[in-house]
Amino acid sequence: MGVDESDTGPQLAPLESYREYPPDEMIRRAVDFHAEVARRRTVREFSDRPVPREVIEHALRAAGTAPNGANLQPWHFAVVANPGLKAEIRRAAEAEEQEFYERRAPREWLEALAPLGTDPEKPFLEHAPYLIAIFEQRYGIRPDGSRIKHYYVTESVGIATGILITALHHAGLATLTHTPSPMGFLNDLLGRPDNERPFLLLVAGYPAPDARVPEAAGRKKPLDEIASFRD
Ligand code: IYR
Question: 46 C-alpha to center of ligand 1: Å?
Fold first, then answer.
């Protein structure tokens, strides 16, 4: 019922989920949503307080609704709560970060990071209750082992990650988008296949009670610097 009956071409269904709001309500919703997401801060000090796994599961379901190339959903979210595995991830990430901060990073990059106060120590990888390793699937694999081409993989996974971060924030959790570089160790430690490439490591939990955040990172460009309108 409600599905196009023709036997050729795509099966189309009526758009039942769309909601229109009167303009004043639309504006209020847009204002409120901005205020809600503008409160989000990237946090680097996490509490070890446990978080209900259901929150993570629902946020991941939200991420899985992201628009993506040909609806092939080219992502995998590997959720890590196991303390031993978190410790291994921390060890591997800190080894890469040590290299990054001491050798690999050009001075210009280190200067750009200075206002954030980041360094190679990543204790949050053990303190936070959840690490979500986000993988992009460069291609898919059919049950017979043949490859399925994926499209706009990075764009798709980036959009899904944005929704995931927003969903976790909306639920009342703090996150950190962590990008140890390179991240190949995540495939080894998490047993992920060769068609998957780590996209980023999302740290999620309650902020530490005394968590502090860099002032510089809270300053966002005004609208006239990030957008242009041609009426
Ligand atoms: N991956 C390093 C460095 C780093 C890079 C950027 I660009 C940042 O916005 C923050 C950190 C680290 O996590 O410390």
Answer: 17
Q: Where are the domains of the chain?
A: 51-211
pTM above 0.70, yes or no: yes
The pLDDT of residue 6 is: 53
Contact 155, 221 (CB under 8 A): no
Judge contact between 128 and 46, C-beta under 8 A: yes
Q: Which residues does a 6 A CB cutoff place in the pocket of ligand 1?
A: 97, 100, 113, 116, 118, 178-181
C-alpha 56 to ligand 1 mean position (Å):
24
Fold adopted by 51-211? NADH Oxidase (3.40.109)
51-89 pLDDT per residue, tens: 999 999 999 999 999 999 999 999 999 999 999 999 999
Which atom belonging to ligand 1 lies closest to the Cα atom of 120? 14
The answer to whether 174 and 206 are in contact (CB under 8 A) is yes
